[in-house]
Amino acid sequence: MKNIILNRFDNTINLKITGRNVDRFIERIYKLGIELLEVNKISRKEVNIKIYEYDYEKIIEIKSIYDIKVTGSNGIDSFLSKIKKNKYLIILFIIGYFMILFLSNIVFDIQVVHSNSNIRNLVMKELEKNGIKKYTFKKKYDDLENITNKILEDNKDSLEWMEIEVSGTKLIVKIEERKLNEDEKTYPKQDIVAKKSGIIRSVKSSEGVILKNVNDYVKKGDVIISGTIMDTYGENVKAIVSAKGSAYAEVWYTVSMEMPLIYNKTTFTNKQKRVYKIQFLNNKISLFDFNKYKNYEEESKVLLESRLLPIKFLKVKEYETRGEDSVFLPEEALIKANQIAKEKIESTLKKDEYIIDQKNLKFYQKDSKIVLEIFFSVCERIDTTKEIKESEIIKDKKE
Fold it and tell me: What local confidence, expressed as pLDDT, does residue 179 receive?
């Protein structure tokens, strides 16, 4: 009995026994002290049993006129045998899995959403400068946020707002252009028009005729303050001036956010070192580095570079960092995401502009992050100038 207990997890086999009066044979097996794990009697002449593999030879020795056939096996040996039999299929599966995992973390497409090709090209160059380009590994959420803020900081005069959204292996970059120069233009004869659609909140004019009042809805391009002054009856053009004034309106934005529930806080230790590396494409290999940092940030200088191959020899200064994982509750992540979205909007506003309202449109949890869509209503200055051309003056007079 002791031997049986010690070998509980040994290999087992299934046997099919056929012959005259199989009950008698089963009794002989019991008398030999062989443990029958399962007994399934099919008929008087046929029975299926399960035994430990090490008892198989004992049964063969006493089988006499009975026919004994192995119908199956279980245990470590059987498992290893199946692995060996299907090893090429298993290897292909493992390679395929890691290949999919590898490819799913690479950026295959970058889409910059904007109608102005110059702005699209500017953003693409800035992304590449910051290490975001096709066929490179996807960056972490925090890194994307830092890069977004850096690009906005470096291009204050061109970009008003920017967001990088990860969609599978594609990056979708949404941007809004800042048109400072257009606001500063003045013409001898001009209208004040809306540069965005919205609901008028306030209008002031020092010259010209106010056509849109508070609570009026205006579309982009609508005249708010006209430089064309009509007579009392509104039939003839009395004068055409350079309209001057300002208009503020309620405009709307929708911000999409993805907030990880697990985030990493990085701090620098006091350790740093210089190493030499070979870079092939975007992969770096350290040379003679026997004390590698687990986490670090680096500054690199190119010492040698091939003109024919994508290979470089670098001198690198590594600064050791320490990462600490923290976990948000979904409610905490929701608050944090709203705060970040609000800061993004506020960073694009001028001194006299402000957020009126903020509401969550969509909110759901996906894997280890929350996905959120936030609606903002914002009070912004929406006036810009539009020249009244001579041909338009003549046409107005004729009409």
Answer: 64
